[in-house]
Every structure is written in C-alpha cells, then in structure tokens.
C-alpha cells in the first residue's frame, strides 16, 4: 500500500503538463528576460569572433587550465577581472565575494587558494579591492543590513574600529575614509594569504608572489599597493607559519 503522501505526490506528478496557457509577465520581468536573451546573443557573437581571431583558444581551454594568476576580489559587477586586465579565458583563476574579505576560517576562499597553489601552480596571487565598494560603505555606517551580511562584514568593521583608534580617519572626508578602509582591507587580505602554509611553502620553493591592488571603478585603472614586507618580517613569517 502506497502511503497517502506518496500517492498524492504521484498523482500530482502524473498530471498533464500544460504549456499552451498564456503567461503574463510584468514589464520588469520582460526587461529581465530581454537582458538575458541579449547576453545569449552577445555570447554567440563573441564566440564567432573569438573563434575566428584566435582559433586555438577554445580547443586549448578544453584540454585543461594553467592560469598564472589567482585573483581574490570582490563580487561587484563593475570589477570583472578578465576584462579589466584585458586577459583571455584560462589566464586567471578567480575567487570573489562581498568586499573581497579573505579569512583563514572561510573554507571557500581557502579551498580556492589551496587548489590554485598546489594543483595549478599559479605564480601570482592578487588581492584586489575597489573604490565605491558597497561592503566598505556599509562597514563605515551604523545601519543594520540584515541576513548574513552583518556577520560577514564583521572583519571590516573590526578593521574600521582599529583604524579609528589609530586616528587614521582624522581630517578625511567620507570618500577618503572609504579609500583608507579599502586599502587596509586589501593589506589585511594580503597578510592572511601570506600566512597560509601552502603559500609560505610555494614562496620558499618557487617564488610565488602575493600582490595587493585597488581598482578605480570611476577610471578603469588598476593600481598596485605597496604591500611589501621587510627582511625581518619575512623571516619571522617563514618561521611561524611554515608547516610540514
């Protein structure tokens, strides 16, 4: 005997699917559908042009990947790493999240770093922040965002508190304060990456390099920050964070 819940589900599952019913979409839904189909059409054009200009690119991608760069950036739609670096598919391995927060406790970013360093053997890791970052603006404000974002942005709020205690925001307007926090967040991300045991090992064995950058969404320019460390700092890091 089939349980009632299963029987009911089965009867619903067997019900004929009707595709001839007229559907009514709101104007916003229609615009969204048009945007999606425009992207599909754009992809077709891009595929045709790229296949013609670089006939070896897609067959090469199908064989595997060997990107020289791991990019750790923000999810912001205005910061597309492959586009702004004028790169090609296969050039950059990517991990992006809200406000490019790099934490040793985040399994997602740490898994990406592990794979990029150990399997792909990337030569460079780039931690990139950007101007007009919504996550940074939220961390500078006092309002509640909601959902999981308040907890996610806690590292930047803590960074803000630390900078404020040091007087880093004194005499600066809102835009300058935001840029200061963006830079500090990038530096913090670089520090976290450099202390990753896999990164420490790769730096020692094959010269893996970690960079910090800020992308200006208003100009399209990417600037590298001075995130260098002195000889003693490097020596101490190698001693304290190298494992195995």
Account of the protein in words:
Helix content is 51%, strand content 13%. A 5-stranded mixed sheet has the order 2-1-3-4-5. Strand 1, helix 4 and strand 2 form a beta-alpha-beta unit. The relative contact order is 0.11.
Would you kindly provide a brief summary of this structure?
By secondary structure, the chain is α/β, with parallel strands linked by helices. Helices cover 51% and strands 13% of the residues.
Q: Which properties best describe this structure?
A:
single chain, 244 residues, alpha/beta, 5-stranded mixed beta sheet, globular, disordered N terminus
| Spatial strand sequence of the major β-sheet | 2-1-3-4-5
- Structural class computed from helices and strand pairing: alpha/beta
Q: What profile does the largest beta sheet have?
A: 5 strands, mixed
Q: What is the arithmetic mean of pLDDT?
A: 89
H/E topology pattern: HHHEHEHEHHHHHEEH
Share of helix among residues?
40-55%
Beta-strand fraction estimate: 5-15%
Q: Report the uncertain regions.
A: 1-23
- Count of discrete alpha- or pi-helical segments spanning 4 or more residues: 11
The tally of beta strands, per DSSP, is: 5
Note the overall shape. globular
Taking the alpha carbons of the first and last residues, their distance comes to 59 Å
Radius of gyration: 24 Å
